[in-house]
Design brief:
Blueprint: H1 2-15, H2 18-24, H3 29-50, H4 59-85, H5 88-95, H6 98-110, H7 116-135, H8 140-163, H9 169-194, H10 204-231, H11 234-240, H12 243-256, H13 264-300
Helix pairs in contact: 1-10, 1-12, 2-5, 3-4, 3-9, 3-10, 4-5, 4-8, 4-9, 5-8, 5-12, 6-7, 6-8, 6-11, 7-13
C-alpha cells in the first residue's frame, strides 16, 4: 500500500507540470495533444520494445485500449482547451471533479454499491468549483471544458484499472496512447475546421517542452499511476490527483503571476477542494491502521 501511494504521488507531482507546459507550448489544444501523443507513443514502442515489456494481446483487447485511448485523447484536448480559454489554475481545479464523477460512474459501470462518503467528498469538490464559477463567470467556457475533461478521465481511469488486471502496464499504456494518436489523427481535420489555427508546426522551443511533456509527464507519470491503480481504487487515485492542481497552481503563480488574476472565490473553492482531499487521506490512513490491527489480532490468535 505504501509503495502504491509513493508511486501515485510521484506521478501526481510530474502531472502537475502538464498545465504550465500547456501554457508554454504555442500550439492550439488539438495540435498540442496530437504532437504529445505522437512523441509519447513512439517513445513507448521504442523503450518498452527494447526492454521486452510489450506482450501480444488479443485483437479484442487492442480495440478496447484504442477506445480508451480515444477517450483519453478527448480528455487532453478539453484539458488544454480549458487552459487556453480560462487559465492554468481554473483548468486544474476543474480537473479535481474527477473524484466526483468516479464516485458516480464506477458503481454504475461495475454494478457495485455507491459509497456515499465518496459521493459526499466529490460533492465538496463540485461545490468548490461552483464557488469559482460563481465569482469568476468570465471563465465559463474554460470551466465547462474542464468539467468535460474530468468526466472523460473518470471513465479512462476506471477502464484502465480493469485492463491492468490481466495485461501488464507497459502494454496497456502503449496501446492506449497509440490508439489515442490514431483516433485523434482521424478526427483532427474535422476538429481544425471547427477550431482553425494558423500554426501547425512547433518551433524548437515548443519541441523541447513537448519532449518534457511526453517523456516525464506522460511516459513516466502514466506508468507510475497505472502501477498504483493495481493496489488502489480508481476513486482513491483520482481524488489524490487533486494534488495535481496544487502543484500546477503553485507553478502558475510563480511563473505566470496568475495569483494576481484570481478572485477570493477561487481561493474559497480551492480551500474546499483541499479539505475534501485531507478528509479522504485521513479515512484511508484510518482504514489501513484498522486492517493492520485486525491482522495483528489474527496472528496472535
Amino acid at each position: 500500500m505504501k509503495k502504491a501511494f509513493l508511486y501515485l504521488h510521484l506521478s501526481v507531482f510530474l502531472a502537475g507540470f502538464t498545465g504550465p507546459l500547456g501554457r508554454l507550448i504555442d500550439l492550439n489544444e488539438g495540435m498540442l495533444v496530437w504532437y504529445r501523443l505522437l512523441f509519447t507513443s513512439v517513445t513507448m514502442w521504442i523503450v518498452f520494445g527494447i526492454t521486452k515489456k510489450l506482450v501480444r494481446i488479443p485483437k479484442a483487447d487492442i480495440l478496447k485500449l484504442t477506445g480508451i485511448g480515444f477517450l483519453a485523447a478527448l480528455h487532453w484536448v478539453t484539458f488544454y482547451g480549458s487552459i487556453k480559454y480560462a487559465n492554468i489554475s481554473v483548468a486544474l481545479v476543474c480537473f479535481s471533479a474527477v473524484g466526483f464523477f468516479t464516485a458516480l460512474v464506477e458503481p454504475i459501470l461495475l454494478k457495485t454499491k455507491f459509497n456515499w462518503i465518496e459521493v459526499f467528498l466529490g460533492l465538496m469538490v463540485m461545490a468548490g468549483i461552483y464557488l469559482i464559477f460563481h465569482f469568476d463567470p468570465q471563465y465559463k467556457l474554460g470551466i465547462l471544458l474542464g468539467l468535460i475533461c474530468a468526466l472523460l478521465m473518470a471513465f479512462v481511469m476506471i477502464f484502465i484499472r480493469q485492463m491492468v488486471q490481466h495485461i501488464n502496464p507497459e502494454t496497456v499504456l502503449t496501446y492506449q496512447i497509440s490508439g489515442g494518436f490514431i483516433s485523434l489523427t482521424i478526427l483532427l481535420p474535422v476538429y481544425l475546421m471547427i477550431v482553425p489555427t494558423g500554426k501547425f508546426l512547433p518551433n524548437l522551443e515548443d519541441i523541447g517542452w513537448l519532449l518534457i511533456l511526453s517523456w516525464l509527464c506522460s511516459v513516466l507519470a502514466f506508468q507510475l499511476s497505472v502501477y498504483a491503480l493495481k493496489r488502489l481504487s480508481a476513486f482513491t487515485v483520482n481524488l489524490n490527483f487533486n494534488l495535481e492542481p496544487v502543484y500546477g497552481i503553485i507553478l502558475a503563480f510563480v511563473f505566470f503571476n496568475e495569483n494576481k488574476k484570481l478572485s477570493d472565490g477561487f481561493y474559497l473553492g480551492l480551500t474546499l477542494i483541499a479539505l475534501s482531499l485531507v478528509i479522504h487521506v485521513l479515512m484511508v490512513l484510518r482504514d489501513e491502521h484498522k486492517k493492520k490491527g485486525e491482522n495483528g489480532i489474527k496472528q496472535l490468535s
